[in-house]
């Protein structure tokens, strides 16, 4: 089968669409005929080896971890899926940008509802489930105010919408070009991260400070810059890492690798299918241009998700 492959740790333009052996579904797994895949920042680090101390990979690496398509075969013991079922999946660290991929039955695999085409579905798993886990970890509640830093990217796309749907007042980072876009996702206010201090701009809108910061950009001590936007006793949550305690009773929560609960992916897919969740595909590429998709994802400002369609 054809796949987007890194044969060794390489620069981003070193990935190629080439032939690799087709995987087979083992016990408890399904083989998916991929129709679309999406990219995430971790894909870039896995290609280059930037995080090989934490996430070493086996080569050849089939790039990508978000896929959508139809079930081609089911492995031993699988009863919940049958060949032909439309599905959406998080494949782990690799395997998605390919004609076929294998996924274990569990919270990272869901049936794709009618009305959710494969490209939109592929744009959901990693970012959507991470957003879900972040809001759950920080216990965001109706009526709270939340600043989302990194709102224009993949996780931000879902974090803004899910926070707004919980009944929170959302302030989102966006340049003026993207301000209407994030308001369309449900943000009530915006702060321009390229035009000054994000915390100061936020405090001008919420003088006592927000209840929650979802910071998708900063890590380590740099998180203290956005933690200043919090009220005393506020909570910061991040998919990266940083201090537990910022003073003033402000605490940090870090999810590490996200842990989806059963039903999370189904819920996101259902919301996308019936229009409650917008899926922003800022750029879509045919499989033959997958290398370009990787370069553009790394180098260009693209709203929401980058999707690759697979014939
Ligand atoms: N722990 C986990 O399980 C987990 C899961 C998924 C992701 N992550 C991590 O979470 C982070 C975010 O992921 P993502 O998929 O949302 O990334 P993404 O799609 O690349 O989005 C990042 C967004 O933030 C914007 N941005 C850049 N600098 C900013 C700043 N200083 N202030 C505000 N916004 C800024 C970017 O704009 P430009 O395009 O202009 O740069 C882009 O729109 C990554 O580091 C990723 O590795 C962790």
What is the global morphology? globular
**What portion of the residues fall into strands of 2 or more residues?**
25-35%
How many domains would you count in the coordinates?
Answer: 2
* CATH class label of the largest domain: Alpha Beta
Indicate the CATH topology of the largest domain: Quinone Oxidoreductase, Chain A, domain 1
How many H/I helical runs?
Answer: 9
What does the largest sheet look like? 7 strands, mixed
Distance between the termini: 12 Å
Q: What's the rounded overall pLDDT mean?
A: 97
Assembly level:
single chain
Report the structural category. alpha/beta
Bound molecules: NADP nicotinamide-adenine-dinucleotide phosphate
What gyration radius follows from the Cα positions, in whole Å?
A: 19 Å
**SSE string, helices as H and strands as E:** EEEHEEEEEHHEHEHEHEHEEHEHE
Share in helix: 25-40%
Q: Please identify, by name, the CATH architecture of the largest domain.
A: Alpha-Beta Complex
Q: Can you tell me the residue ranges where pLDDT is under 50 for at least 5 consecutive residues? A: none
Query: CATH superfamily of the largest domain, called what?
Result: Medium-chain alcohol dehydrogenases, catalytic domain
Number of strands: 16
